[in-house]
């Protein structure tokens, strides 16, 4: 995808089927250890295969909420705090640069 600078999947359905692919952007993945659709053992193998990316496993399912500002905003939990601290500052910086260049998203 053109212009993508990072990825922060929550739940990440299908990600284990593509574990051999090398992401082209930094990834911060959030997974729950009780998710019936994404086995935690597979997530652990994914983390071992891609140590340069951040893969977090929680004792529950991480929550994600979309907000009107067109940026992903995570509902107040640890996964959200991590994503906010890493991904959102860069996304906001890129939006500011784009607006200055006259082609607002």
Describe this protein's structure.
The protein has helices at 40-49, 78-100, and strands spanning 28-32, 54-58, 65-66, 72-73. By secondary structure, it is an alpha+beta fold. The chain has one domain. A two-stranded parallel sheet has the order 1-2. The two termini are 15 Å apart. Mean pLDDT is 74; it is low at 64-76.
Question: What's the arrangement of secondary structure elements?
Answer:
Elements: E1 28-32, H1 40-49, E2 54-58, E3 65-66, E4 72-73, H2 78-100
Parallel strand pairs: 1-2
Antiparallel strand pairs: 3-4
The shape, in one word, is: globular
Strand portion: 5-15%
- Tally of extended strands? 4
Q: Which regions have little confidence, pLDDT < 50, spanning 5+ residues?
A: 64-76
| Arithmetic mean pLDDT | 74
Total domain modules = 1
Could you name the key traits of this structure?
4 strands, two-stranded antiparallel sheet, alpha+beta, two-stranded parallel ribbon, 2 helices, 105 residues, 13% strand
Brief rundown of the structure:
The chain is of the alpha+beta class.
């Amino acid at each position: 995808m053109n212009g993508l600078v990072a990825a922060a999947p929550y739940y990440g359905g299908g990600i284990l089927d593509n574990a051999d692919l090398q992401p082209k952007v930094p990834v911060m993945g959030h997974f729950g250890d009780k998710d019936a659709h994404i086995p935690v053992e597979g997530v652990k193998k994914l983390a071992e295969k891609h140590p340069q990316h951040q893969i977090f496993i929680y004792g529950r399912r991480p929550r994600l909420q979309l907000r009107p500002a067109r940026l992903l905003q995570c509902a107040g939990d640890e996964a959200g705090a991590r994503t906010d601290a890493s991904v959102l500052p860069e996304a906001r910086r890129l939006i500011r640069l784009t607006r200055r260049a006259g082609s607002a998203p």
